Amino acid sequence: MSDNGQEKQVLFEIKQLCKSFGPTKVLDHIDATIRQGEVVVIVGPSGSGKSTFLRSLNLLEMPTSGEILFEGKEIRSIWDGEKGDYYFSVVDVIGALTDSSNPRKYWSVLKTRLKKEGSEVTTNCSQLKMLAPDGKIRLRDAMVTKDIFRFIESIPSPKAEPMKMWLANLGSERIDEVFDPEIAINRAVNYYRNKGYSDKWVESRLKGILNRNKLTDIW
After folding, report:
1. What's the chain's Rg over C-alpha atoms?
2. What is the dihedral of CA 96, 157, 175, 122, to 10 degrees?
3. Would you write out the chain's pLDDT as a tens digit for each of its 219 residues?
4. Residue 145, SS3?
5. Are residues 148 and 121 in contact, defined by beta-carbon separation less than 8 angstroms?
6. What is the distance between the alpha carbons of residues 35 and 201, in angstroms, rounded to a whole number?
7. How far apart are the C-alpha atoms of 150 and 163, rounded to whole Å?
């Protein structure tokens, strides 16, 4: 609750989140709600999935199943390892930025307008298979990060800047870590140090992760 007694806005809503690495299930149908201004603490023993849960929130890890809603809206994405970039669902971005009751129609009208204006945004749009709300796999218009940035500029919305910041952070972190995994390791080490853990504890923690990965390979 806020200071005036009103319920705070929901930033993240997690529904039935699952994440598996091979046969090892790390997150098992997690439900959670995180509201604006809240301080949320995630506790648990080493290897319980705390880091995987946090990385799933900003899509540094792609969930096996479940939903992660940003301000009540799901933004579906697909990571292209060859291109080193995300593809984002255009309709989902529209739904998150606007109050449209029909984002697909909004996109249809906007696409026609952009084509008439000679915009290159529509020509850089690809169709990829994504999970639809009805549980079926359907083709959806999608754009890579840089094109989504340009696309957002064409939508008048007060949410545009926060959305661009979120996308920029998401993309840059994921790409940097792909080309230099040491960045992710250093970030983890600094995180634990800032939490007050000793270097001996951090070393033990990293060795534990390495040993679990070895066991996963064997399984």
Report:
1. 20
2. 90
3. 445 556 677 777 888 888 888 788 888 888 888 887 777 788 888 878 888 888 777 666 777 777 777 666 778 877 777 777 778 899 998 988 887 889 999 999 999 998 888 888 888 888 988 877 776 788 999 998 888 888 888 888 877 777 776 666 655 555 555 545 666 677 677 767 766 788 888 888 777 776 665 544 433
4. helix
5. no
6. 32
7. 12
Q: Is 211 exposed, middle or buried (0-12, 13-18, 19+ CB in 10 A)?
A: exposed
| Whether the Cβ atoms of residue 141 and residue 91 lie closer than 8 Å to each other | yes
Q: How far is CA 173 from CA 50, 74, 78, 167, 188, in A?
A: 19, 20, 15, 10, 13
Phi-psi region of 135 (alpha: psi -120 to 50; beta: other; left: phi over 0): left
CA distances from 46 to 144, 160, 185 (A): 35, 38, 16
Token pair of 140 as six digits: 């959806």
Residue 14 DSSP label = E
DSSP label at 5?
A: S
Q: What sign has the CA pseudo-torsion 145, 150, 156, 161?
A: positive
